Amino acid sequence: MSHFPINQGRTPQGTMSDHSSTRTVVYGSVHNLQSVAVTTLAPRKDGYWVIFIHGGAWRDPVVTSASFAATESILRERGLPIAGFASISYRLSAHPSHPQDPINTDPKDFQDAKHPGHINDVEAALALLQNTYGFGGRYILVGHSCGATLAFQAVMGAVSGHREEASTRSGSPGPLPPTLAAQPTAIVGVAGIYDLRRLRDTHADISAYQGFIEGAFGADEMLWDGVSPAQVTGSRGVEGGWKSGRLAVLAHSKDDELVDGSQVEAMKEALRNWEKTEAHIPVRGVSHRARRLRVLSISGAHDEAWENGEQLARAVTFAFEQLQEMGLTP
Predict the structure, then answer these.
(1) Which one, 5, 58, 87, 151, has least CB within 10 Å?
(2) pLDDT tens by residue, the chain, 330 residues
(3) Is residue 11 part of a domain?
(4) CA 51 from centre of chain
(5) Distance between CA 20 and CA 76 in Å, rounded?
């Protein structure tokens, strides 16, 4: 049972829907997908931002930042200490079912992103949000499918921080905002991809897996391993990179027909040493530096989590419950 009040039906007077404002924020000038859908709520110092990264195998133009809409609608009714929502769009790789003519397609609409383009965009979006709204580390980064990959890549020692390296390259996000002011307090991975090679090998009889991974990361399988959150340990992985992190939630459904349960098992193993060590955070105002790793069983097919929003909202609510138990939220 949730520790937070669940409001049934209409939102009562004085809750978060009364003072909300939604707009699109642009963080890059190279592509039309370099934007974030932002909903600001009534200011509250004890609140957290919930920031979503959509899935779609790094390439599906049908799966967009709008895929968070149903989840956001549900979460707005739950009385959670949320200060704002954001759903990140990022440049996509080419999709064989959605061919484009490079001559007649506006470059700002053309899909040809390769790693590290996707994570560059996510990091640029996060930095812009932080610098615009000033929430520091008080945010929960939520990712579905490859969005969960990107969420954990954002705190990997070997992957995060590419924005500065890319600033002079063709295809960079354009004028770049400052680096992240702080890492997320919590990351929620839903139906996540954490080991690229393992995913391909598990589904070796389905060529689409090789296709979309290669489309996003190229053919070098050593690179696949180097960017897989479940493969990289020590200072180059999440273990050493996510220094201030407090909570990791891995949500998976046994009915998921696209991403199997071995992905969660691999990521859980990779996070064991991270959970055992204390978070690197200022002493002032903090009673403890303990961390938590939790696996949450959800239900439904792969895309059902965001299509009706119920299971994705359940995972976010669960994260708030865990933060409350840890004394990190009221």
Answers:
(1) 5
(2) 344 443 333 333 334 445 678 899 999 999 999 999 999 998 888 899 999 999 999 999 999 999 999 999 999 999 999 999 999 999 999 999 999 998 999 999 999 999 999 999 999 999 999 999 999 999 999 999 999 999 999 999 888 765 444 433 434 455 444 567 789 999 999 999 999 999 999 999 999 999 999 999 999 999 999 999 999 988 899 999 999 999 999 999 999 999 999 999 999 999 999 999 888 876 555 567 899 999 999 999 999 999 999 999 999 999 999 999 999 988
(3) no
(4) 7
(5) 10
**What's the number of domains the chain is made of?**
1
Gap between the Cα atoms of 66 and 44, Å rounded:
25
Burial of 257 by CB count in 10 Å (0-12 exposed, 13-18 middle, 19+ buried)?
A: exposed
Asked if residue 208 belongs to a domain, the reply is yes
120: CATH: 3.40.50.1820
Catalytic residue selected from 60, 121, 256, 303: 256
Helix (H, G, I), strand (E, B) or coil at 186: strand
65 assigned to active site: no
115 an active-site residue? no
CA separation for the pair 256, 241 (Å, rounded): 29
Q: Is residue 52 assigned to a domain?
A: yes
The one catalytic residue among 54, 252, 302, 303:
302
CA 98 to CA 81: how far, in whole Å? 40
- State the Cα angle at 203 between 199 and 204, rounded to 5°: 110
DSSP, residue by residue, 234-245: GGGSHHHH-TT-
Q: Say which of 145, 160, 228, 253 is annotated catalytic.
A: 145
Concerning whether 302 is annotated as a catalytic residue, the answer is yes
Distances (CA, A) of 26 to 52, 143, 164, 175, 319: 16, 20, 18, 11, 28
Domain residues for the domain of 258 are 19-97+106-325
Distance from first CA to last CA of the chain, Å, rounded? 17
